[in-house]
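In the design runs reported in the main text, the only information available to the sequence generator was the tokenized backbone. The following block is the verbatim input for one such run; it is reproduced so that readers can re-run the procedure and compare outputs position by position.
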């Protein structure tokens, strides 16, 4: 608590000093008077808007006292031969009252002003400025017995209050918009990271779920085999088969625990649905960075003739990410990748095409087989991506199909995905 007061105290002193210095950029609207219209009021208001957590009343009091002492010290330096401490304090006391009144008035709307429309906000600040000027002029009237009863005086004060209040509101709005843009940019980066993570996890989860289905089938077959062997009187063999069945069941339980852990990692609060165009945009953006990391110069092009909301954006992004990443890896140094999307009847067609090294004719019939890959690292180990067989399985799970376009140039690869539009569309 003490540290907080020290921190706020430092900030209030900073506001006071800035206001006092800004107050020296001024003009005096009334000839023969020390009353001034300066940038101090604008600086004070802007600081209050940017530091909404400060106690406005105390900030106004500290600023008023600081302005009073600052101007008195200024008089002692520049009017040394004619300086009078009491006279200088008397002259500048009304200015201190201006900031004290301003701080008190601002505290009355401190909890609400950020909800106001900028036009209404400028009107409120103008009224506070005029009221504070009225207090200052009233104090000056009492001190110097020089009443301000001329209409032009109040016209000048009113116009000045309105101009500088709306000027500060404009600056504050610009700062706020800039902050919102930065925040939006950071949120976009987080969403991109979460989407890439989730699409990667989706492929692993899909593969694990498929493996668990296979394990379930093996367990059932193994147990049936045990019953047959045990019924035939081969006890030693049946016991071995039962042990194998139990071990398979343990593997299944371990897989279930791993699957539950992976599902917890999904950030389901990113969005309930996304537009198809956004899914493609994310796939292109992430793989553009991937191509740059590999030192390749690749042009990405998108031709979208359809767009709609879908809540299947994670599996779609998983499929597109893998196909586009494969395309990036297939291009040696320079090339182009084209992604197209359009509707054909009741199907949505997605096409990923690249100008890479292509796929050999003898390998085209095997690319969707489990374990098939054309990519090996320097040690001779196969690539560890989810593979085209799992891409195909994800597409099939959505009720669609994927195939490699035939009859094309060997230096070009084109994958065509067809998916039921009603399945993809939001609410379908």
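Verbatim output:
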């Amino acid at each position: 608590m003490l540290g907080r007061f020290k921190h706020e105290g430092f900030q209030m002193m900073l506001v006071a000093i800035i206001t006092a210095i800004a107050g020296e950029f001024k003009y005096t609207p009334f000839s023969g008077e020390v009353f001034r219209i300066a940038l101090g009021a604008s600086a004070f208001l802007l600081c209050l808007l940017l530091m909404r957590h400060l106690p406005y009343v105390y900030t106004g009091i500290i600023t008023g006292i600081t302005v009073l002492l600052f101007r008195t010290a200024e008089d002692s330096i520049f009017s040394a031969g004619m300086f009078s401490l009491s006279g200088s304090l008397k002259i500048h006391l009304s200015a201190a009252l201006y900031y004290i009144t301003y701080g008190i008035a601002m505290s009355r709307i401190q909890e609400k002003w950020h909800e106001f429309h900028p036009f209404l906000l400028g009107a409120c600040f103008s009224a506070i400025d005029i009221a504070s000027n009225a207090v200052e002029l009233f104090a000056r009237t009492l001190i110097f017995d020089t009443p301000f009863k001329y209409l032009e005086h109040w016209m000048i004060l009113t116009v000045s209050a309105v101009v500088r209040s709306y000027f500060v509101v404009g600056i504050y709005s610009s700062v706020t918009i800039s902050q919102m843009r930065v925040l939006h940019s950071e949120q976009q980066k987080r969403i991109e990271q979460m989407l890439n993570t989730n699409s990667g996890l989706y492929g692993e989860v899909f593969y694990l779920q498929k493996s668990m289905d296979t394990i379930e089938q093996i367990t059932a077959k193994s147990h049936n085999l045990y019953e047959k062997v045990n019924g035939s009187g081969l006890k030693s063999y049946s016991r071995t088969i039962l042990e194998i069945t139990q071990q398979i069941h343990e593997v299944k339980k371990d897989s279930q625990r791993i699957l539950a852990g992976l599902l917890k990692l999904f950030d389901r609060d990113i969005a309930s649905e996304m537009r198809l165009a956004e899914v493609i945009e994310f796939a292109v953006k992430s793989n553009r960075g991937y191509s740059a990391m590999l030192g390749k110069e690749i042009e990405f092009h998108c031709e979208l003739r359809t767009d709609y909301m879908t809540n299947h954006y994670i599996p779609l992004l998983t499929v597109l990410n893998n196909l586009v990443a494969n395309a990036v890896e297939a291009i040696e140094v320079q090339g182009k990748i084209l992604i197209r999307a359009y509707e054909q009847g009741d199907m949505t067609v997605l096409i990923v095409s690249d100008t890479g090294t292509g796929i050999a004719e003898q390998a085209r019939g095997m690319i969707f087989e489990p374990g098939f890959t054309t990519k090996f690292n320097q040690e001779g180990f196969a690539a560890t991506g989810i593979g085209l067989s799992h891409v195909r399985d994800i597409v099939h799970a959505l009720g669609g199909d994927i195939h490699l376009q035939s009859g094309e140039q060997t230096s070009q690869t084109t994958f065509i995905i067809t998916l039921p539009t009603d399945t993809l569309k939001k609410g379908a």
